Amino acid sequence: MRFSKILKLDWYKRLTKTSLLALLLVTLSLGLSGAWWDGGNSQPARESRLPVGNAITDGKALLRYSLPIDNQFVRDIQASLEDISTQLRAKRWSPVGRDITKAATILSDRTEKLLADIPIEKQPQAEALIAQMNQGITSIREAVEAKDKETILSLRRQILDQVGELEELMMGEFPFEVPSEYSHLPQLKGRATVEMTTNKGNLTVVLDGYSAPVTAGNFVDLVERGFYNGLEFIRAEDFYVLQVGDPPGKEEGFVDPATGEYRAIPLEVLVRGDSEPVYGITLEDAGRYRDQPVLPFSAYGTVAMARPGDDPNGGSSQFFFFLFEPELTPAGLNLLDGRYSVFGYLVEGKEVLEKLKEGDVIQSAKVVKGAENLVTPQVAEASSGQEQALTKPDEIESAKVVEEAENVVDSQVTEAIAEKEAVITPNSQPTILDTPTS
């Protein structure tokens, strides 16, 4: 069914601009920076952090910084390489050279420090990555000498991708357990890459289970089921959102064929400094106005779950791409963080996403990497008259879970006047589901 809009986008823009001005004034009065990372939280459990400075608008960089690792050497390599683009914009070639030299020195002289946080069985893979990065550094030096800006940026992207892979290898056991009330839902215990083929071209998104295991797990499970194949984009607002995931028929989300019930996914937001996500409540309602999420709405192509405006736990299959508009939602200070579950970022296909409109179609979606990180809880069906019981891990293994799953393992938007609010919502009845206010 079609998503009916209650509020006009122009009204939203005016409201948002007014709200932003008020919020900025409050922020300034509190002495806050929009890019401030700590938020006064000194908990050491979660080491994922953003550098001080301008908010990051690149999805890949946000994914790298979101990893809860504590290896300063790899972070220094990352920071040096990311700084290159800033220096190139001002044509400051000497700082570019210093950035490259710093990265090269760490790679050659601190190899053992880079390997120290990587499990022994993964160290050969890490050593191969370090060798590739050293080769890339040699090539980028040559491009700097030739002042070939295009080649420098291309090589920088390649090396940063390898840095991201190295950082993922530093992840040990999954850092937390999902609350028991949500443990029956699919969970992505790691990361996965999904490629979507649309009638306008391909999109590639990386899903972050380290920060949103339930939301990302639900999405990967639905992709594996072929749920999104053939579904139309049901809402498109220029510079705002592109929404999809409403199945044919009266249902506005996924109904599990095993239970015949609507699969409801809780709001899930990991706050910087916290050891595990906040579930079932917006950061605003939780009184955490100054806290910032690990996965913010600061990049074009941010992927987030749509949900009913009055039910933080009512999301299911509908999701949206955030079409970054600095005027409405400036990076590092916007009205969506903490209100919706962000679970990934577009990493390839920006030019395709810019073309997609309401009525366009996801022809197919498939997991191309990380399907083994999807964990699907198994329930053993007892014979008639007996209760269903959760299968033990070893029984799950014997039940061939791995084979069956195929490696499967919302901040503040002003309340709408006296009417119901249509935030980023899956099409819902009788309640209108919530996409950021439209």
Low-confidence stretches: 1-12, 20-45, 379-422, 428-433
DSSP helix count? 11
- Rg on CA atoms, Å: 22 Å
Largest sheet, if any?
8 strands, antiparallel
* Structural domain count: 2
CATH class descriptor of the largest domain: Mainly Beta
Strand order of the largest sheet: 4-5-12-10-13-3-2-14
Overall SS class: alpha+beta
Mean pLDDT over the residues: 80
Q: What is the overall silhouette? A: globular
Helix percentage range: 25-40%
CATH topology of the largest domain, by name, is Cyclophilin
The tally of strands reads: 18
> Could you spell the SSE succession in H and E letters?
HHHHHHHEEEHEEEEEEEEEEHEEEEHHE
Beta-strand residue percentage: 15-25%
In CATH, the homologous superfamily of the largest domain goes by the name Cyclophilin-like
Per CATH, which architecture of the largest domain? Answer: Beta Barrel
The end-to-end distance, rounded to whole angstroms, is: 17 Å
GO molecular function, one term: peptidyl-prolyl cis-trans isomerase activity
InterPro entries: Cyclophilin-like_dom_sf, Cyclophilin-type_PPIase_dom, CYP38_PsbQ-like, E_coli_cyclophilin_A-like, PsbQ-like_dom_sf
Enzyme class: isomerase
Keywords: Isomerase, Rotamase, Thylakoid
